[in-house]
Design the sequence.
């Protein structure tokens, strides 16, 4: 696959910066004499627990495809094109440096559905913000439950619980938030704000046109996704014998997921994820560095293998082309992952889509 985002100097700079971050984190986390023992722990991982982790991660990734289908093709679910786009996007977001793989979702939605850059970017940012609220919400509650009551960490329990409740409070009334987005768009139109109104409408279009039942389904799929990812992480800790409780795993997964989402990240997103997991596991469960690091590496490996396997499947198996449904923006066959037309995510037309070669 070829995705052209920028020139060679920019790509080289991003690669070198990511390499520095990964190497720096590895040197800080793994002393020179611990590589052998760390490898021994990973090699002795329980295969049954590892297989359960893979299955849970697979469920989470399939639910992500369904979630994207709910957003971009609400009248045709489950949409195979959305599943294919989601699989490729998840893989690229894991392997490309500095989170540049996230941009692949904008490119692929534009190519497959004819969406505008603004509306596709709105879908990407909206989904990530909803995920961030969910992770911070449950992570804050879990930290409030498992952190020791004494000392500095104990003083943070109530603020963490309040913060977690605030994040979940933002996420739960999603239909109300979407309705608020519609009202803001109408308000901008009413006061004759032409350009801001068009900008707002295109950025929020992927969500404001969803029905109430679709929004509830979106919330449910997000819970399934993160339940699957949490279970995958838990079984990974069991596989390496890290001895982490459910609460400690929840806190460590939340911290590592936030670090994983940072734009400044390592090669294959390796480095900040493991560092955050190790620090959170130590603070929440008193877990030593070596077993916590082994668990973090196995979690990362499971996620990479599942995402890579799904991406390989959707690229290797050609999709069947088809005609657009009556009422869609075009009846002609479009290029892209799906090879079929679909309901538009955005409203701008006429711009040439970035080149995608599969």
Sequence:
């Amino acid at each position: 696959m070829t995705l052209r985002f920028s020139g060679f100097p920019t790509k080289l700079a991003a690669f070198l910066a990511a390499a520095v971050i990964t190497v720096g984190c590895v040197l800080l986390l793994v002393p020179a004499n611990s590589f052998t023992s760390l490898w021994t722990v990973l090699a002795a991982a329980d295969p049954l627990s590892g297989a359960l982790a893979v299955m849970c991660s697979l469920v989470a990734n399939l639910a992500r495809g369904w979630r994207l289908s709910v957003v971009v093709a609400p009248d045709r679910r489950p949409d195979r094109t959305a599943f294919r786009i989601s699989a490729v996007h998840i893989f690229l977001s894991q392997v490309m440096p500095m989170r540049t793989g996230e941009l692949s979702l904008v490119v692929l939605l534009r190519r497959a559905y004819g969406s505008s850059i603004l509306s596709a970017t709105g879908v990407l940012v909206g989904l990530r913000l909803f995920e961030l609220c969910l992770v911070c919400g449950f992570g804050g509650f879990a930290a409030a439950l498992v952190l020791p009551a004494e000392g500095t960490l104990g003083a943070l329990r109530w603020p963490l619980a309040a913060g977690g409740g605030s994040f979940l409070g933002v996420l739960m009334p999603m239909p109300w938030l979407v309705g608020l987005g519609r009202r803001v768009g109408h308000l901008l139109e009413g006061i004759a704000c032409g350009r801001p109104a068009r900008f707002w409408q295109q950025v929020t279009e992927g969500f404001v046109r969803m029905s109430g039942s679709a929004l509830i389904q979106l919330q449910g799929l997000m819970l399934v996704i993160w339940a699957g990812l949490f279970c995958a992480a838990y079984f990974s800790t069991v596989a390496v014998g890290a001895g982490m409780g459910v609460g400690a795993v929840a806190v460590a997964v939340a911290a590592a997921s936030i670090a994983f989402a940072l734009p400044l990240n390592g090669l294959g997103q390796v480095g900040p994820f493991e560092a955050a997991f190790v620090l959170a596991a130590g603070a929440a469960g008193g877990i030593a560095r070596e077993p916590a690091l082994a668990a973090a590496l196995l979690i990362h490996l499971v996620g990479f293998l599942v995402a890579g396997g799904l991406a390989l499947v959707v690229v290797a198996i050609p999709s069947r082309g088809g005609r657009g449904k009556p009422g869609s923006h075009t009846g002609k066959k479009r290029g892209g992952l799906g090879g079929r037309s679909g309901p538009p995510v955005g409203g701008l037309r006429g711009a040439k889509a970035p080149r995608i070669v599969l």
Remarks:
- The radius of gyration is 21 Å.
